[in-house]
Amino acid sequence: NSIYIGFWTVFLTLWIGSMVSYSIGRMRIRHGWLLNNAALMTYLVPASILAIPFYRIMQNYGLSNNLWSVIAALVTFATPYAIFIFQQYGRGIPLELDESARIDGASPFQIYFRIYLPLMAPALVAVGTYALLLAWNEFLLQFLLLSSKRSMTVPVALAQFMNSDEAPWNYMMATAIVYAVLP
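The chain above was modelled as a monomer; its predicted structure follows.
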């Protein structure tokens, strides 16, 4: 479950963040700076304050005890950072590349896939690593949103070992090794 959540969090964060930064920076959307700054304003509210509202929202939409509820929450927290990093990195890519591709008949999607994304590879790796570590180490949202043993992730499973009076140290240490080695 942790690998599944990590993969989809990374994929959706990179996809949404790169598409937004491309549309703001390259397609010259009117008032795009406002969208970029609004995304950064979301970091003024700590994630722990939003845990209970996320729990209620996921219950209202029938996503309680579903891995996609955790993925949606983690993508929500990782995407503003991705947009900011992609915006800053994308400013170093010359706009003349886009203009010459347009003259040669490339569509905006072709420019995005053939010019923008390959040149953004270092930023994609950096943001992907951040999103993976965020998804792998998140405990509070996974603990609140996933309640069954079948949907439990590694951090929550590691915490569940401490519920009994006598902790099974061999299982705890094996889980801790998996938790530390995999990301």
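The chain has a mean pLDDT of 85.
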